[in-house]
Design brief:
By secondary structure, the protein is mainly alpha-helical. The chain has one domain (5-143, 161-183). The protein has helices at 5-25, 31-50, 63-81, 87-106, 108-113, 121-142, 165-183.
């Protein structure tokens, strides 16, 4: 999570912007949309905080266990709500990946050297495979698809910009890319 400063700041900006948009999505009139957006906002802001380059700010020793606790609680919440749909399974995997990265950064070897590299290579590889597949599938879902007989006339009712499914998918895609970037440094 702590590599060169420029990519680190780009990752911070991407994750913070995604978290901010997810906060706006929490104003949706659809309860499931609000619930998912809350978890995604937490992930976005948490990823942004964890990605701040160490050249600018080195977190105190207690920050990494605090992150692990926060995302452990998010994982428990995702586990509880997993009964409602498969998307919460992704929230569970994402929260557990954040716990794993925080634990790797809390390891003495990571603190001494100011970078990652103290994670389990097998677990890191499995998470990289999962998030790579997730990013590819999410990206494919963003590709425009026209229905048979659709002329692109734009009829129908207007959807509020916070409830637009393609924007929610774009947020999930950007967080998946951010997770890949963070996992590469563990």
């Amino acid at each position: 999570m702590h590599g060169p400063a420029s990519p680190g700041w780009l990752l911070v900006a991407l994750c913070a912007a995604t978290g901010a948009y997810c906060l706006l999505r929490m104003r949706s009139s659809v309860e499931e949309q609000r619930r998912a957006a809350g978890g995604e906002a937490l992930m976005g802001f948490g990823m942004a905080a964890m990605a701040v380059p160490t050249a600018v700010f080195t977190p105190p020793w207690w920050a990494w266990p605090a992150y692990a606790g926060l995302f452990g609680a998010a994982a428990l919440r995702a586990l509880w709500t997993i009964r409602g749909g498969a998307h919460h399974l992704h929230h569970l995997v994402g929260a557990l990946a954040m716990v794993y990265m925080a634990a790797a950064m809390a390891a003495p070897s990571a603190r001494e050297h100011g970078h990652g590299g103290s994670g389990n290579p097998l677990l890191t590889g499995l998470l990289l495979l999962y998030f790579t597949a997730y990013v590819l599938v999410s990206g494919a879902r963003l590709l425009p698809a026209t229905a048979a007989g659709d002329t692109g006339g734009g009829g129908g009712t207007a959807v509020a910009w916070g409830d637009r499914p393609e924007l929610a998918r774009a947020c999930r895609l950007s967080m998946g890319i951010g997770m890949l970037a963070m996992l590469l440094t563990v």
